[in-house]
Specification:
- It is a single chain.
- The chain is an alpha+beta fold.
- It contains four helices and four strands; from the N terminus they run ααααββββ.
- It has a four-stranded antiparallel beta sheet.
- The longest helix is centred in the first third of the chain and has 20 residues.
- It is globular, with a radius of gyration of 19 Å.
Amino acid sequence: MSQMRMIRVGIFLLLAALAGACGRDLKTAQGVADEFVDQHYVNIDLNRAREYSVGLARDKIDNEIRLTRGQAIDASTRKPKVHFQLVETKQESEGRISFFYKGTIEVEDAPEFTRRWLVVARKEGDGWRVSNFTEYD
């Protein structure tokens, strides 16, 4: 193998390792909670958010899906820009953790505003799922 080819392979492997390190660990409570917030509030993809939910959270998502049925959200939809940060984590019990997020929402032709989200994750078998979520002003 030529030296140039070995360098290219090395760079590729380094970039692949870095890309993998940037992803969320969906085997952790925080990884699942972050992904849920990302899908629900940032991407506005309720079906994907549903994949990370159980119980009351899934019921809430199903209701949102029912209420928005027929409202297409696609490339032509003007979506808000949403950024969020984890503010606090609280261990409720061995298999239950609450995450408090602050979201900043930018809508075209409107002032920026914030929302706070409480997302509760619970241990389900070998993984974690969002069992409840609440939005606050």
